[in-house]
Amino acid sequence: MNIFKRNFERWTRWLHIYLSMFSFATLLFFAVTGITLNHTNWIEGRQKVEQVQGDLTVAWVHSDSLQVAELKVVEYMRNTYAIRSPLSDFTTDDSECSFSFKGPGYNADGFIDRSTGHFELTITRYGLIAILNDLHKGRDSGTAWAWLIDISAVLMILVSVTGFLMIFLLKKKRLNGLLIAGFGTILILLIYYLFV
Fold first, then answer.
1. Where are the domains of the chain?
2. pTM of the predicted model, to two decimals?
3. pLDDT tens for residues 95-146?
4. Burial 131-145 (b: 16+ CB within 10 A, else e)
5. Rg (Cα) of the chain, in Å, rounded?
6. 104 near 131, Cβ under 8 Å?
7. 8 Å CB contact between 102 and 39
C-alpha cells in the first residue's frame, strides 16, 4: 500500500507539472481572452470597413438558369481583394448573387447584379482583440481550431483534477485546501444564484 501511495503521489505530481507546462500557452490564451470577451466594449467602433465596387465577366453570372460560375467568382474575389477566409455562403436568385467570406475578426460580404456583372463588396476587419475573441469562441475558425479548443479543455480538466488530487497528498494542508475549494465552489454558486 505504501508503494502504491508513493507511485500515486509521484505520478500525480508529474502529470500536474508537465500537463501544466504543456498547456501553459493555451491556458494563458483562454484566460486573457476570457477577460477581453467580458469587455467587448473595448473593441466597439474600432473596425475598419472597406467598400469596393467593380464589374465581373457577365458570362460568369448571367444565364437563364440559376447556375453561375461560382468558383470563378470566388477565386476572382480572393485574388483581387486578398481574401483568405473561407467562403461561408453563396446564394443565387433570378436577379442577383450574394456571397460571404467569414474568418476570425473578419468578414467580406458582396452582392452581384446578374444582368450587368456589377458587384459591391464590403470588407470588415474588426482588429486583433476581435480575432482573439473569435478564436476563443471557435467562431469561423475551422475544424482544426475546434479540435484545439477541445484538446485544451481536456488539458485544463486534467490539470485541475491532478491539482485537486495533490491536496490529498499534503496531510497538513488537506483540510484547509478542501475548505478553500469548497468555499470557492459555494461562492461561484452564490454569485450565480444571487446576481445572474
1. 2-42+130-195, 48-125
2. 0.81
3. 999 999 999 999 999 999 999 999 999 999 999 999 999 999 999 999 999 9
4. bbbbbbebebbeeee
5. 26
6. yes
7. no
